Amino acid sequence: MAQDQTATFERHIHEQQLSQRSQAGGELTWLLSGIVLACKIIGEQVRRLGLTNQTGSAGSTNVHGEEQQSLDIYSNQVLLECLGSRGNVGILASEENEDPIVVFDNRDDGEYVVVFDPLDGSSNIDVNVSVGTIFSIYRRPESNGGSTHSEVLQPGTQQLAAGYCLYGSSTVMVYTTGDGVNGFTLDPTIGTFLLSHPNMKMPARGNIYSVNESYADSFPPYCRRYLHWLKSAEDDSLYRSRYIGSLVADFHRTLLKGGVFLYPPTSFYPEGKLRLMYEASPIAMLAEQAGGIATTGEESVLSIVPKNLHQRVPLFVGSPFEMQRLQTFIQNPLKV
Ligand code: AHG
Ligand code: MN
Ligand code: MN
Prior knowledge:
There is one protein chain. By secondary structure, this protein is α+β, with helices and mostly antiparallel strands. The protein has 2 domains: about 190 residues, 2-Layer Sandwich (Fructose-1,6-Bisphosphatase, Chain A, domain 1), CATH 3.30.540.10; about 120 residues, D-Maltodextrin-Binding Protein, domain 2 (3-Layer(aba) Sandwich), CATH 3.40.190. It contains 8 helices and 15 strands. The strands form 3 sheets. It has an 8-stranded mixed sheet, with helices on both faces. Strands 12-11-13-15-14 form a 5-stranded mixed sheet, sandwiched between helices. It has a two-stranded antiparallel ribbon with strand order 1-2. Helix 1 packs antiparallel against helix 2 and helix 5 crosses helix 8. The protein is globular, with a radius of gyration of 19 Å. The model has no long low-confidence stretch (mean pLDDT about 90). It binds 2,5-anhydro-1,6-di-O-phosphono-D-glucitol and manganese (II) ion (MN) (2 copies). The site of one manganese (II) ion has 4 residues, from strand 5.
């Protein structure tokens, strides 16, 4: 099928804004095009990594005490510059910055808040395994006289848009503004993201589960029993295990093929490892917009009001069949 080279990401956003008759007009479109620019720049660096000095550790640690990779810092800088210069972003918040960055003091000058994980899957950078960028966009609340943090700490249900860019065998941008999920593949010959996955829907059921099983002994009992169910063939639905270690890549596969991704509480991360604001919430919005389900095991991810920018939560996300089965293990903790 000859690709329609006019079916660009920018055109899609514009048409969605028109169809939603959203009051955002071209503002959100302009903001999203800033994210597209940043992801193109980051993607180019990812593609050439072995030839540049962006590999390896930056010799610094982030707010989580995690060793920062050079590409984490580079990607963060690219997003801060591309979004900080959009002219309509009031606050930026990143995994790599302890506190939010105020671009405009006056809310009227910058009505959007953008929260992002500039490079997700850092441990995979140097071994040429897919990594990604995750973003989440909120409207800056009317000046409530509160702190900058209070303007950022909004539940996932308030997201205006969410998405990710996956730097894999191809570079794919997947996003939602609350009206379904669409995917775009970068055509490097013209440097443009073209519509390749229209109206993405997560399969009602899959046959893949994705979890880091090395922590299984410290998972909660319900989770261990759920994992046992996934591994025991039942009504010929034998599940395969796939775990990449980059949330964006593991989720993208789950979105396309169905099944379940889980990052449960562990002894090392009793609250879960993944961060609510720039990993779990955007992923949860995409999952639910595509017909999937995303919970912490106790509540819907999207309903959580963040306590702090870097709050961690457990994440279970996937197809309705596997997620409803998980619920039965949670509700009957003693039943084997
Ligand atoms: P980041 O590179 O942004 O810190 O995210 C890494 C996350 C996520 O991408 C992935 O699902 C998870 O860490 C993998 O954790 P484990 O290595 O503990 O499995
Ligand atoms: Mn991440
Ligand atoms: Mn990261």
